[in-house]
Design goal:
The protein contains 4 helices and no strands. It has about 140 residues and is mainly α. The chain is elongated.
């Protein structure tokens, strides 16, 4: 598989996972942790389905998960930056966004990437088992 095709599959996983998680989140309104859990589950599910249909490497799933998490962070950041402010309100400064939010963002990206990696691995294992492929001895 070419690098361009792998990148397109990663972007497709990320965008579709964000869309599916947002739709499910609208049905179950809750906090941000629930959205992150839905995003992780959607990334894993879509990566698994993609691996069942197309034989891709686990790096594609990891890239899709990371892209989905970065996409959510970018949309949230743009929304916060462009939202109208009430009287006396201030936007968060760069010092407000360091350490705790930064580590949380890195953690969410890592968890989403791991979910994509795991989803593809599981999908490849299931597709090989369904085709009757024999695993080489370890």
């Amino acid at each position: 598989m070419s690098k361009l095709r792998a990148a397109m599959w990663s972007i497709a996983i990320g965008v579709l996972a964000v869309m599916l998680a947002a739709m499910l989140f609208r049905v179950l309104p809750a906090g941000g942790a629930v959205f992150v859990a839905l995003l992780v589950a959607c990334v894993a599910l879509l990566s698994l389905l993609l691996a069942l249909l197309v034989e891709v490497s686990p790096v594609v799933g990891a890239g899709g998960g990371a892209f989905g998490a970065i996409l959510v962070a970018a949309v949230l950041g743009i929304t916060i930056a462009l939202a109208p402010l009430g009287l006396g309100a201030q936007r968060p400064q760069l010092t407000d966004l360091l350490w705790k939010p930064l580590f949380a963002l890195i953690g969410v990206i890592a968890v989403c990437a791991a979910a994509g990696w795991t989803g593809v691995r599981l999908g490849l294992r299931l597709s090989r088992r369904a085709r009757g492929a024999v695993r080489p001895p370890v």
